[in-house]
Amino acid sequence: MDDPGNLTFPKSLYDIHRVNFYRSYLKELKRAINDGANVTGYFAWSILYNFEWLLGYTSRFGLVNVDHNDLKRYPKLSAYWKARLWSLRNFLIGNDRYINQLVSVKFALVYIQELPESVTDSDIARKSAEVKLESDTTNGAENIND
């Protein structure tokens, strides 16, 4: 899911289309699990922009916006949404918020295999991973059916 190329920097951080995509995807994943699929994990592709063979770095579909001039990272709305899900590790599975039926989901841990060469880049990478989570009105669960 690529960001439209005509979005300005501040507008590209508000990627509600990606949040809706992940929400829909997780609903279908839940349906597959209920139908007996053996699901052992789930991950988002991709956290940062990566190099695409035909498009280079112009295809921007990551959860974090990278400024290629100074390498600063800016988490998008989808990054905050996914971070909240990863921290909660459970979801409400009914439309009725009063039914507190939870299903656990296993997530792969994301880690950096190689740190950037300079301390400055390392600090930027570390800082980009820090996400402040807001309290959830659903008592610690994300309702993926909304």
UniProtKB/TrEMBL annotation:
Gene Ontology process terms (BP): carbohydrate metabolic process
Pfam families recorded: Glyco_hydro_1
Source species: Gossypium schwendimanii (Cotton)
Family membership noted in the UniProt record: Belongs to the glycosyl hydrolase 1 family.
Matching Gene3D superfamilies: Glycosidases
Molecular function GO labels: beta-glucosidase activity
Name of the featured protein: Beta-glucosidase
Superkingdom classification of source: Eukaryota
